[in-house]
Amino acid sequence: MTMSICRKLGFIVVPFFTLACGDINLMKPTDPPVNAKSDGNFCISPPETKNRLTKIMFVMDKSGSNSSTDPGAVLRAGGVENFYNDHLNDEYIKWGMIQFGQVTDFVITDPYFTQDETAVRSAISVLRSSDGGSTPYSDALAKTELAIRDDIDTFPEEDAYYMVFFISDGRPEPYISVDQAKTLVQSIVNIKPGKIFLSSAYYGTNGTSAQEYLREMAIAGGGKYADLNLTGELDFEALIVRPTNEPWQIKNTTLMVYNTNASTCLDGSIGVDSDSDGMCDVDELEYGLNPQLRNSFPTITDEKGKTINLKGY
Fold first, then answer.
1. Relative to the CA of 30, which of 56, 149, 272, 312 has its CA 20 to 30 Å away?
2. What is the pLDDT of residues 61-71, one digit of tens each?
3. In this structure, are residues 143 and 106 in contact, taking their beta carbons and an 8 Å threshold?
4. pTM assigned to the model
């Protein structure tokens, strides 16, 4: 009946299916390449070793006016000597000294910073010798910068911080302005920002412009200022500046990989930690845990022989 109807209608119904054909070989995919594999070890580089030292530079006024402001260098030599004696046995301090006056030069030389006690005691004796001349700030600061630059170049392995004490009883002669003095100080501390500081102290006649010079120089040097007209003594402990704590950074040019499949075992060794839960496999097995599963719980048998999983407790 259906065929006759189809013929009368002029067409034949033929089932039609479309199949996609192609030359395809089914293969098991290869394992991806393994770039990292844990053997239970931390692979780290040893830290870089540096000697961190504090280097003290005393820049001391030896001008002629000291015959009245500090006769016999009681303030100057006494303050330096007391400070040195307090730190005599500190193996991480080195000492330097510059005098400025009739002679402006290094009192401690070759190198400019030393731990030799004889050299330091000799420098203190120079402070007690006769004074003379003017107060050439610019020459003294130039020699301070020279000493620090030379020291950094000569001892690059020493990660040093520098403390400069600039001590004077008068304003600069030959004349320089306050701003010029500040610029000279900034040139020094900018050699190694955060590692060089300059503090100052004044011990001359009260009410002179020298106080402004020394105060502004201390500000420029990131240091402290003391007026001995108020304190009565040259206390270097009150003038010292210690650097702030340094942050450790991983710079953006550094990649750090931490092996989470290694941890410290109870016996102190480093072992494999397969599930990265902070407990090495050896210890997990010892306590009935599953080293392949995080947050696993031990299964124990009670006195009746019943198996108990501690997860339910």
1. 272
2. 999 999 999 99
3. yes
4. 0.65
